[in-house]
Amino acid sequence: MAIDCEFRESPEMKDLATRIINRKSEVGYIDVNDVLFLQEYETKPPANARCYRLLGHPIQAFRPETFCIVFYEANIDHMSPQQRALLMLHELMHIPPTGDKLIDHNIKDFSEIIGYGGTDWSRSGRIVPDILEG
Ligand SMILES: [Zn+2]
Questions:
Q1: Which CATH class name applies to 7-114?
Q2: How far is the CA of 69 from the centre of ligand 1 (A)?
Q3: How far, in Å, is the centroid of ligand 1 from the Cα of 91?
Q4: N or C: which end of the chain has fewer CB within 10 A?
């Protein structure tokens, strides 16, 4: 049976990433043009988004980016703009300052850096701090 995926390149997510990179020094080293931003609309994997390293992947015959972040819209369509910004910050933090090896969660506590304790920040209806404000 075929896997029914629907990927779209996302200028909106790239724009959100640009605003966060300009604002948050934790990810200020990231070149937004080195990241391919995709939204996927059909599947519901056990993740809201995933960060990939494209180096050495055949897709590099077609794309210049080193990294790719996929957002699973079927899982995150309930999120507020503030929650999406937190999710984006989280995913950007997987991209390393040097080299091309993705940063894993075990290096630092991501939620601590994001400044919002609690693991249920991504649930429907949760009010979270606006990292793009102030
Ligand atoms: Zn993560």
A1: alpha beta
A2: 11
A3: 6
A4: N
Is the distance from CB of 53 to CB of 102 less than 8 angstroms?
yes
**pLDDT per residue as tens digits for the range 3-51:** 678 899 999 999 999 999 999 998 999 999 999 999 999 989 998 999 9
**Segments making up each domain of the chain, as ranges:** 7-114
Please give the distance, rounded to the nearest whole angstrom, from the Cα atom of residue 7 to the centre of ligand 1. 20
Amino acid at 61: A
Question: What's at 107, amino acid-wise?
Answer: I
Question: Which two tokens mark 74?
Answer: 């079927």
CB atoms closer than 10 angstroms to residue 114: 20
Q: Calculate how far, in angstroms, residue 110's C-alpha sits from the geometric centre of ligand 1.
A: 8
